[in-house]
Design brief:
The protein has 437 residues and is an alpha+beta fold. It is built from 13 helices and 10 strands.
Length: 437
């Protein structure tokens, strides 16, 4: 698991942070070595003791974050904390352990008081980052988890080695040339006039225009230009006969500009629709999340009440084994009292292990439920980002197309001005036709 620790002050702020309601489940698992069993009061107690020393950062705060898909039992967290405590020299120091659950993940926070109450000085904590990395590496090996590259080898944590596979996008599938040709031929076959052909092509996403050198052309929504005669498999003369004078049609440049403008508007509508769908999905997800958290909290309360009642009953049963009065005194002399005491201690430990196992089983089930819900959330976010990137990519393509059309128009106007004063009328007409091409 990833271990992040630091020395700090601010007892009140830290307690408020650890008890934040933004987490779906918060459990103060243990408070040890403090007079108070309230987290805020306990950390403030550490602050009060530190006032008798020169120590400013009187707390050591540690977060323990297991891998995404790992289900960690409470005892494994406790073992890790004990190991860290011993390695850092904090054994026996007052501490508090808090568990957080959010989005199907469970992690742990542990806070120690650095002040040694007997010596009235702070426990020194040299090289904590290196020590925590060593322990984290050992924990990954112990549990058989896939170790992060940066943890396995510190040189590999360089951002230049990070993979961009998470952001890879599926390539867009182009149209089959045979399907394009079939579209042109179908539109030609079902039309008996130029207007009918133009309308049929527009219904299929093509606009008919005047080409620069190919007479009549069709342009798709991407701005690709197709020679009608070639793709409809007819002669140019037949196309001219049906469509009439090409000068009655807008130029390819004008049509591409029109397509770009129309598609930019369409991209804006697509984006608004996508954002609207995202907001609706967010509302549905939050509703399901709240329902799940509410149900889980009720189940945990039911289990805690059940465990508390059973613990009370078992404790009373064990206590009733001790006899009172003269018989109790006799049990003490004969050793029966001591045997009962050992039996009670053994049964108490077994009951603690049993209760913890039941609680861990419920927590594990709750984590799996939250993970399943979160998987749906991740898939929806991924789908949204992919669609948003596609829309942004297409919008940028149409913006570039518009910019290219404007630049070409400006170049044409500039060249026309250059020749306007020096050319004869015949040369001007020839030059104008050349520029159109």
């Amino acid at each position: 698991m990833i271990l992040v620790g630091n020395q700090r002050s601010g007892a009140k702020n830290l307690a408020l942070h650890l008890l934040k309601e933004e987490n779906e489940h918060v459990e103060v698992h243990e408070i040890r070595g403090f007079a108070s069993q309230n987290l805020t009061a306990a950390l403030n107690e550490a602050y009060a003791i530190s006032r008798a020393t020169r120590c400013k950062q009187y707390l050591f705060s540690l977060s323990l974050n297991p891998p995404q898909d790992a289900n960690i039992a409470t005892v494994d967290f406790e073992d890790a904390i004990e190991r860290i405590e011993d390695r850092l020299g904090l054994s026996g120091q007052p501490r508090a352990i808090v568990f957080h659950e959010k989005e199907g993940r469970r992690h742990c926070h542990t806070v120690w008081s650095r002040i040694d109450a007997e010596e009235m000085k702070a426990v020194p904590l040299p090289y904590t980052k290196r020590k925590l990395q060593e322990i984290a590496r050992d924990l990954y090996l112990k549990h058989g988890w896939t170790m992060p590259r940066g943890l396995a080898n510190s040189k590999e944590s360089d951002p230049k080695n990070f993979s961009l596979a998470q952001w890879q996008q599926a390539k867009r599938i182009g149209k089959d040339p045979r399907a394009i040709k079939a579209t042109f031929q179908d539109c030609w076959a079902i039309s008996d006039s130029g207007a009918a052909f133009i309308n049929a092509m527009e219904d299929r996403g093509y606009k008919v225009a005047r080409g620069d050198r190919r007479g009549f052309v069709a342009i798709d929504f991407k701005g690709e230009i197709y020679a009608i005669a070639k793709w409809a498999n007819v002669k140019t003369k037949q196309v001219r006969t049906r469509l009439g004078d090409e000068n009655s049609l807008p130029s390819a440049r004008e049509v591409k500009q029109q397509i770009a403008q129309e598609m930019l508007v369409a991209m804006g509508k697509f984006k608004d629709k996508l954002d609207s769908q995202k907001q609706e999905r967010n509302k549905q997800f939050e509703k399901r999340r709240i329902e799940l958290v509410t149900r889980q909290r009720a189940e945990r309360k039911t289990l805690n009440d059940k465990l508390e009642q059973r613990q009370t009953a078992e404790c009373a049963e064990r206590q009733n084994r001790y006899r009172s009065g003269i018989m109790g005194f006799w049990d003490l002399l004969s050793g029966t009292h001591n045997r009962i005491k050992k039996q009670n201690a053994l049964e108490t430990d077994q009951a603690t292990i049993r209760d913890r196992a039941e609680k861990d089983a419920l927590i594990t089930r709750h984590l799996e439920q939250r993970k399943r819900l979160n998987t749906i959330r991740i898939q929806e976010r991924s789908e949204y980002q992919s669609q948003k990137q596609e829309i942004q990519k297409d919008a940028q393509t149409y913006k570039s197309m518009l910019s290219e059309m404007r630049d070409q128009k400006m170049d044409k106007s500039r060249r026309e001005r250059q020749y306007s004063d020096t050319s004869t009328p015949s040369q001007k007409r020839t030059r104008s036709r050349s520029l159109d091409q």
